[in-house]
Amino acid sequence: IRYQDMKKTISHKSATAGRPVMSDSKRARMRREIADIAKRLFQEEGYAKISIRRIASEMECSPMTLYKYYPSKVDILRTLWADVFNDLFDLLEALPQTAIVDFMIWE
Q: How far is 83 from 32, CA to CA, in rounded Å?
């Protein structure tokens, strides 16, 4: 066994030691819950006033737990903006094609 292979094996084992592997669906649910709580706090108090620590407090978890799902507060905001644009694109797709063409001609 080569050193590089042994190093990868050891680091993988230590990263998951004692913890069950989280399913993708559970990870997605946790990310959604974090984003929903952050959205509410941003709306109530403003983005600048809310910290990761505050979001973690609302989630009743440690800030380090949040960092497993989002590297920073900006990344949470990016998720929220992606939601806004996805909703907008869904609305546009639901419009009849003539409405979109009429809008484009209007400009």
A: 11
